[in-house]
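Example record

The entry below shows one chain as it appears in the dataset: sequence first, then structure tokens.
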Amino acid sequence: MKEKKQGITRWIYWFLLGVAIIIVYKTLDNFGQIKESIGNLFNVLEPFIIGLLIAYLLYIPCKKLEQFYKKSKKVKFINKKARLLSVVTIYIIVITVIALTLNFVLPAIAKSIIDLVNNFQTYYNSTINSINNLPENFALKNDIINAIENIQNIDLKQFINLEKLTQYAKGAINIVSGVFNIFVAFIVSIYLLLEREEILNFMKKLTRVVFKKETYQNIDNYFNKSNEIFFKFLSSQLLDAVVVGILTSIAMSLLGVKYALLLGFIIGLFNLIPYFGAIIAVIIAIVVTLFTGGFGQAFLMAVIVIILQQIDANIINPKIVGSSLKISPLLVIFAVTVGGAYFGVLGMFLAVPIVAILKILISDYIEYKNKIKNKEEIIE
């Protein structure tokens, strides 16, 4: 009887192994279709994902405001409606900031881009004349001329003008679905902020019912750690990018750099991407300033921007983040490279916190295994 049970168990094991091999084979064989299906699913869920991200970023400010309103015991209405009022207040602030940006910042940036493209040939000729006036024994003269001639061969007007920008926008986003997605994301984020405690309590109850006590505690522990890492990284990177963009724009304006607002915006935006972003943005700023202001201004601008980047890396960013993610620069570069290769700009942005979480999981697993081995060695 016992041998019969063992035989049945063995057959079940081999059957399940065979099914698993077939599933893996079919998955790899139809990887393109599966990837397309996952992509379609993400397109459908896009407004919900965006809404979740918005609610996630606004969670702490809403929580702080709710606590502030709850302290207003003199007015009972404010105390009872603290959460609703906190959400309304935060969205009024966000909409005001977006409106000011659309009315003042973006038009100035768009004007700078169009002006730069239209006057590119003039800037190019002026730069070539400056280089030709350099002494013949200047070491990098020929290399600089070759590099600039390669830039000259790129017809920027072919890629950047009002008509092309409109075509790119229409090709990338369907206007009707885009508006619908933004509206749905906006509504989803409001409901998530209003019902956040109920949603979290439901998820905790469900996890507690499905898993054992020890597993539930581990899930709860890693969920809290992951949440802390993601929120700290996302909020701090956004705030840091705004601060760096403003400081760089002001510094460039004081130096008389043309398109200071545009270059400051680029540096702030690229600063969202760890390591690579700052380097790429500074190179772009140096090249543009070289064409529009000459060698002297480009060199001075590069020195000032690099100093600001160092101040940001060593003072501003640590103050905003509080404590680092405690992962090596090599691991960060690896994460950004892989994330960008497979998931584009979003992958480059989110790769670092994901790798930080994976590092915690792997480190805890290694520690757990070492404890078991140590116990076994002691028993032996």
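Notes for this example: The radius of gyration is 28 Å. DSSP finds 14 helices and no strands in the chain.
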